[in-house]
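Bench notes, afternoon.
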Amino acid sequence: MPLKMSIGKGRPLLLDAKAGDVKPQSQVMDEWSFKAELLIKRGMQQRTWGYRELAEALNAVGVRGNGPTINRRINRGNFNAGFLLACLSVLGNGADVVEATKLVPASGSKSTV
């Protein structure tokens, strides 16, 4: 049975039944943000793109920004899931992005899926 504990500031998350494995939510989210940043940077590296090329590709699909702006946004981890999906889409990373975009209705309204 999972053990729930509250330590320090923030909402703790239980990763294992051991009490020592509980991390605050802020730390867990920072780790996920870092992984999202790496996904984008690895995609850029595979294509040998810089931030300017990524910005041009994002502009073509309606995401505004220039090279330095996109650079800051990615390196600060200051982006949402939509930006991540847009980056992965223009970088051509995986069928998961294509499948995820199929779930969004054409009108842009929220889906009940």
